Amino acid sequence: MWWKILSVVLLIYVLLAGMLVPLKSGIQRAEPAYARTKQEIAVRFYGYNTMFSKAAASGIRTWLYYDETYALAASRCTALNDTILEAVFRMPANLPEGRQSAYLNAIIDHPAAGASLLPAAVELTQDSGIVAATLDSAWTARPVHQLHVQTGFSFPYQNVIYESIRNTYFHVPMWFVLLFLFGASVWYSLRYLRQPAPENDRRASAYAGTGLLFGVLGLLTGMIWANYTWGKPWSNDIKQLMTAVALLIYLAYFILRRSFDEYEKGARLAAVYNIFAFASLIPLLYIVPRMFASLHPGATGNPAFGSQDLDNTMRAVFYPAILGWTLLGLWLANLRIRYQRLFDKAMGLD
Amino acid sequence: MKFFKSRIFFTIILFLAISLPAAFAEGNRDFMRETGKINVVVAVILVIFLGIVWYLVRLERKLTKLEHQTKDDQ
Fold this sequence. Notes:
With 350 residues, chain A is an alpha+beta fold. Chain A has helices at residues 2-20, 172-194, 198-229, 238-258, 263-291, 312-347; strands at 26-31, 34-36, 40-48, 61-65, 71-73, 76-79, 84-90, 101-110, 114-125. Chain A has 2 domains: 26-125, Immunoglobulin-like (Sandwich), CATH 2.60.40; 162-347, no CATH class. Chain A is elongated and about 90 Å long. Chain B is 88% helix and 0% strand.
């Protein structure tokens, strides 16, 4: 009983914190996104969740950042409104290391909202082929210093993803619940093979069925998100394909169960099949996706996301989300087991 | 009450869930993408909720059938 209450309390917390905690501020794009050397140029930065006009004129500092030694500081920053900042740069005569062009990252430092970064914001191109021996003074000697850090509870800002980073608490836990329930299912299948009691078979099939529900929900929610991030719901991404294969393997488990007239024979074969299904789940969801390129967030490294995709603020919501959703999955599976127990008793099977 | 257990009801719910966001998107092209794609998160939560409701409806339908069967036996 207590774990059902815990599940509800955790999920209420996840829903509230997951939806109400704001995102950190970030830079969406820079206009113009290209510049030539020796040019004086006003670049407009379009921010997200920024509070440009709520800082003193001297408070906001902006750089175009080449590397740790070379950066261009803006001579003047003007906030046009809360989300548009105009920064004036005097471009130098030469690029570092005798390069013909380079992508410069933008860094905007706000005293309250903290520093935000836009990679490859402006492309700087050499105006003439003449490369001077020394770099001029537009490149600051001590580039980026004393950045502010945003205080308070907020989720990381990521371009393209924006607010949908909150799906980490709704879409991602589906796969944790699926793995937990499929794991419980194979555990009871193994027990059924050692001791063919109907209770073991009931549990194995109920856990697999509920796991399948969460798998389908994970796939559907992923497709909704993909539609507005990748442009279409299904793009044959390696993670989508392998998940579909894994779910079809588990669908076959239920077809196999029902294709025998004799109950015990069906339950026994389904239990053996379940072991193979679970054994194939691990390579399908955890090994193969690591071997191919994927558009999925956190594609570099872990299939779900690496440590760089999850900061401590997100962990404070993500871990309770996993526990809450898993307990809810357990609850749903439990109802199914109890129904099946009554059904089997009424049919004289147990 | 019977209506709420019928397949028609379920189909209507499913149809609404799929077509409502599309209808919003029709009127305002960027409904799902504006305000930082927050409506994608709302749609995701809605789908999970409907999935769990669908699971409960199916279980209830099975339970009703079992209740009728055991009543006949007595």
